Amino acid sequence: MISHKIMSPRIQAPIEGRPFNQYLYDDDQVWTDFYRRDGGYLLRFPDLADFEVSADGTEVVTYPMPDCDEETIAHLFINQLVPLALSRQGQPSFHASVVTVPGGAVAFLGESGAGKSTLAASFALDGSAFLTDDTLLIEEQDGICLAHPSHASLRLWDDSVSALINNDIRRAGPISYTPKARLLAGDALVHNDDLQRLLAAYVLTCREPDEVVIEPVAGVERYMGWLKNSFLLDIEDDDLLQQHFDWTHRVSASVPTFTLDYPYEYAALPGVRQYVREHVASL
Description:
Elements: E1 3-6, E2 21-24, E3 30-37, E4 40-45, E5 49-53, E6 59-64, H1 70-89, E7 93-101, E8 104-109, H2 116-124, E9 130-132, E10 135-141, E11 144-147, E12 153-156, H3 158-164, E13 181-184, E14 196-204, E15 213-216, H4 219-227, H5 238-254, E16 257-261, H6 269-282
Parallel strand pairs: 1-6, 8-14, 14-16
Antiparallel strand pairs: 2-3, 3-4, 4-5, 5-6, 7-8, 7-9, 7-10, 10-11, 11-14, 12-13, 15-16
Helix pairs in contact: 4-5
């Protein structure tokens, strides 16, 4: 669906004009600059790589910096470029981790740091499997939303690794721009690579109550829970925006959606897993 060509490394030259959009880190440093170029787009990840994306989102050409390793390029393409390019094609994609439950799968929506990957690892170590760590691609079939699997690895901070992971789980090579560990799926950390029906979604709000709390979300709040966690390549294209709003509305209307809050400590995770599984079974 997306062709990808990696060119010879090159230094990032200055770009004329201002980006029409930016992604920023929490400290306001630039993570991604979005430019328009030759009818398509240029996405710059400073000191890492430039990605040229065709106007229809079907082609990506990568120009890595000379010292940017292959693991980093692969990770950027899978987790950043693919969902953004697919949004140009009209295919829904969201910031979410996904794990299996009896009958299908559930998604945990949330911004970076909300605990999506930790939840996914916790479930995958306890009788479930994870489909994706950070990017949910959705396929719609007859009004049903199906979750696509992604790369069979999870990224966790060191404290989560220490709390959850034993030495039997293999690690992938490091990624240059993040200190997170990359853990490869296997017999203990189970990955599922089949399409799964999405039975429910849980928006992580990080309010940190004293106990597990799940509450239904309806109307505009439900729609916004999906919209603010979605990928969109061009925020200024009126036709794309309308298409984006339409399919986000369809997804949010099709998938039962709830907020999920729980004590932000590792000892609470078994209770979270049990609560979520019982909740999904009751729907």
